[in-house]
From TrEMBL, chains A, B:
Organism: Streptomyces heilongjiangensis
NCBIfam families tied to this protein: PRK03437.1
Claim: Manganese is one of the keywords in the record: yes
InterPro entries, sorted: ICDH/IPMDH, IsoCit/isopropylmalate_DH_CS, IsoPropMal-DH-like_dom, LeuB_actb
Main location class: cytoplasm
Gene that this sequence comes from: leuB
Name by which UniProt lists this protein: 3-isopropylmalate dehydrogenase
Length: 346, 346
């Protein structure tokens, strides 16, 4: 009999509520013969305040034992900015070499968008996850004085760029439109820009069926609001990917439905799946959070570990549920979770 | 009698066409007693191909003699990416210490926006112009090999951050809503983030009437499409400013109407004014480009050199012209320039 062994990290704020619904839908969709095991971990603000720890080596060893990780959200205003981000989330992405940060954007029928004219939107961003300006390289001298200098170093390697670019080409190749756009700022960040552009051009030769283009990150934000339909697969660096995927989420239905995977394609380490949204402390504990983004992250998780039919069933259920919401009163987090669980089971 | 002595750089592509209209409107609006002198400079792709030069020390000495600079657009596909950007545009911004990159966004009546519901948009971005990831610091080792490493160093100084933050506070103070938002990514780029955040908090004490807030750059892109009305003045670093001002232009009527100033507030060097759009080689020479962004850049130029009434007259003329366009056939670049010249003269 098969088994699926998950690490579950509800985290802070609405993380708790949405992860509960994610697990509910997961249990409902999994075939009977699959033994689901979950172990909950208490990372986040509470543990940090109690112990000063964000993510220890022992924690990493424990997490390594799982097939995959489901994360709600980490972050709380009581913790100084950067502590949990660098100490937990980025530490985990780097330690487990999550170099493919996968963020699909699809405007589902009936879902509201801030854009006029309800454009067709169906693309996926492959964001590099282990390099660029996110490495923590840099520093400060003369802190707090009028002579302070602070640097941030974006580190880009041929190794790191090539593997994520190749992954993105393979994903583009597998989609009907077979189109890949590189987003960077190679006219200003010329060192990193040349590396990205050269590798992109080189790897393109291995994928003759894939149509390619290049867009500067500033122009990409324009197209994301004026012509999002032009995008199929986008590959970009860690920081540009962070920025454009929030915008992509906003135009394709909001962060209530934006899912993401932090993927280690080799399987050497477990991959982690999480909604793009944060812990939203302002609405935590009120049953107001939309669990759809987490439920869709569960679908990405299932696809990653080989349950394609179950992943598709979840995506169809969320799509149908969203279409049905139009004009109806708002439901609670748990009500949406219940409805999705019924759909995937039925 | 007064005089205004301008350097005019039409540049490449549509730059030529739009600058001609900018000068037309400028001549029409200037009071009779002001002696307008202009000197044209041939920077851009043509000169680069002919001489290999982008901007020499002698060029900088010549430009220094002017009261201000009007730029069309620089860039052509025949020149490798980065050559004119770094060799001309950024070189000029850095040489003349254009540390306040001013980019207003106002959705004028009748102007189309990709956003649903025609929201109210009226804010200005103060983008730092001489530091951050734009300094050209960084480098490449083992170029072209599988072991290539490319770095980009964002350099941030207390001196550079404080002067632009103070400028932004002063601008917020002078506006009715008196609100200033710092946009950064201080939870990940913690070295630069702390510098920006600390200085922002410190300078805020000098401006007790200004309401302040802080938003991560990724979240800022969400607000720019879901709630742009929340912004009054934004201050941000060079790269984040580049990205969000293109998005800001897109939501507030497009880059056909987005103006910018590269300002040296001390007056030690001439400031430069340019449309946010590029040289658009695909439509160059066809009379299709909208000169409004350049004409509005002329207004920013006039305000900078002390002609507030004339600046306001241009802004009113462009606003009226845009409102009148609705439902009418498209006019040529020169026709729009003519109409604006008539309006400001009348
Ligand atoms: C919380 C933050 C560190 C994170 C990031 O910048 O990657 C978030 O914005 C995201 O996109 O997952
Ligand atoms: C052309 C390029 C160098 C420039 C920049 O990045 O600053 C442009 O995008 C702008 O915003 O003025």
């Amino acid at each position: 009999s098969r088994s699926l062994n998950l690490a579950v990290i509800p985290g802070d704020g609405i993380g708790q509520e949405v992860v509960a619904q994610g697990l509910k839908v997961l249990s409902a969709v999994l075939p009977q013969d699959v033994k689901l095991e979950t172990k909950e971990y208490d990372f986040g603000a509470k543990r940090y305040h109690a112990t000063g720890e964000t993510l220890t080596d022992a924690d990493l060893d424990a997490l390594k034992q799982h097939d995959a990780i489901l994360l709600g959200a980490i972050g709380d205003p009581s913790v100084p900015s950067g502590v949990l981000e660098r100490g937990f989330l980025l530490k985990l992405r780097f330690a487990f070499d999550h170099h493919v940060n996968l963020r699909p954007s699809k405007l589902l029928p009936g879902v509201a968008t801030p854009l006029a004219g309800q454009p067709e939107i169906d693309f996926v961003v492959v964001r590099e996850g282990t390099e660029g300006p996110y490495t923590g390289n840099g520093g400060t001298i003369r802190k707090g004085t009028p002579q302070e200098v602070a640097t941030e170093v974006s580190v880009n390697t041929a190794f790191g760029v090539e593997r994520v670019v190749r992954d993105a080409f393979a994903r583009a190749q597998a989609r009907p439109r077979k189109k890949l756009t590189l987003v960077h700022k190679n006219n200003v960040l010329t060192f990193a820009g040349h590396l990205w552009t050269n590798i992109f051009t080189k790897v393109a030769e291995e994928f003759p069926e894939v149509t390619t283009d290049y867009i500067h990150v500033d122009a990409a934000t324009i197209y994301l609001v004026t012509d999002p339909g032009r995008f199929d697969v986008i590959v970009t660096d860690n920081l540009f990917g962070d920025i454009i995927t929030d915008l992509a989420a906003a135009v394709s239905g909001g962060i209530g439905v934006a899912a993401s995977g932090n993927i280690n394609p080799s399987g050497e380490f477990p991959s982690m799946f999480e909604p793009v949204h944060g812990s939203a402390p302002d609405i935590a504990g009120q049953g107001k959070a939309d669990p759809s983004a987490t439920v869709l992250s569960v679908a990405l998780l299932l696809r990653h570990v080989g349950y394609e039919a179950e992943a598709a069933a979840i995506e169809e259920a969320v799509s149908a549920d969203l279409a049905e919401r139009v004009g109806k009163p708002a439901r609670s987090t748990a009500e949406i979770g219940d409805a999705l669980a019924v759909r995937v089971a039925g």
